[in-house]
Specification:
Layout (H helix, E strand, L loop, with lengths): L1 H17 L7 H15 L9 H16 L2 H14 L8 H23 L3
Length: about 120
């Protein structure tokens, strides 16, 4: 009986490491929507750093909460957004905007579907 409990505990510990999905969080959901809104309203004729700062805020929150699944997605999105500023050419901005739209939609969908 002792061995059965030990094996069950070992299996549950191993499974929890495989499932690296964080639980639902209202704040993460709101940050995901906020980032998505900032990306959708990005004007490539006059780009600002607003999107970059929104993504950075989201990245820092997920790091602080230790949501490894969200953090990995948002870190990739931050790499895309970090070079957006007033000096970004409109053609480059439009390409980055399309990429950011896809990333923000995917992240928001992933976060909103958690329990």
């Amino acid at each position: 009986m002792k061995y059965l409990v030990f094996i069950a505990a070992l299996c549950l510990t191993g499974c929890s490491q495989l499932l690296d999905t964080s639980l639902y969080d209202d704040n993460e959901s709101m940050l995901a929507v906020d980032v998505r809104y900032a990306v959708e309203t990005l004007n490539c004729d006059y780009p600002t750093q607003r999107v970059k700062f929104k993504v950075l805020k989201f990245k820092l929150y997920s790091e602080s909460k230790k949501s490894n699944d969200v953090q990995s997605m948002v870190s990739k999105m931050y790499k895309t957004a970090e070079t957006l500023d007033m000096n970004t050419k409109p053609a480059v901005c439009k390409l980055k905007k399309k990429i950011l739209q896809k990333q923000s939609k995917d992240i928001a969908n992933a976060i909103m579907r958690r329990y």
